[in-house]
Amino acid sequence: MTTGSKISKLRKENNYTQEQLAVMLGVSRQAISKWENDVAYPETDKILKLSELFGCSTDYILRDDDNLESEVSSGCQPPGNIMISSFDNKSVVACQNVQCSKILFACEDEPKYILYGTDGVSFWGRHNTTLGWYKSLEEVQREISEITEAIGQGKPSYKLKYAAEIEFVGIFGQPKLKKHL
Q: Which helix (H) or strand (E) holds 25?
């Protein structure tokens, strides 16, 4: 799947017109059309905004890899909100939606998946908060399943159970798995 077809697919899945997406990104409707038809490509800052808006990785948007789509879990869209504490317990997010994304090219000591929680949607798009990092797809899928079950049971909150303990290292604050001695 090309970058353009992914942008088109994500736009349609989120019920945006080309005009609406153009306004959100500060570009013309024609620019969106050119992107979707692979005549032109979005600038880096626009790719970052698309990633945030649609809750997917920039790798998903950019890589012309059909296998990548099956590796990225679309998450769940439960019929309600649930309060979820972030990985660092510094914030609590009233999640309307949770979704995970595969971290491509992660090193051995880095998490492989990230879980996002959507706490609001406005004219400018979704607002996502990082909930946690995960070592494997099975762990993040188990987390999403239990969040869905908690919502179905009417529980008002959920505490992450399977997120990996991480620490931020380097000048860019890269998440690394904590090593226990």
A: helix 18-25
Question: What is the rounded distance in angstroms from the CA atom of residue 36 to the CA atom of residue 14?
Answer: 15
Whether the CB-CB separation of 62 and 39 falls below 8 Å is answered with: no
> pLDDT tens, 42-63?
998 888 888 888 877 787 888 7
Cβ atoms of 75 and 144 closer than 8 Å: yes
pTM score, whole prediction: 0.52
Residue 30 pLDDT exceeds 90: yes
DSSP state of 164: P
Q: What is the DSSP string of 27-88?
A: S-HHHHHHHHTTSS---HHHHHHHHHHHT--HHHHH---HHHHHHS---B--SS-EEEE-TT
> Using CA atoms, how far apart are residues 105 and 119, in angstroms rounded to an integer?
28
Compute the CA torsion angle 14, 175, 63, 136 (nearest 10 deg). -80
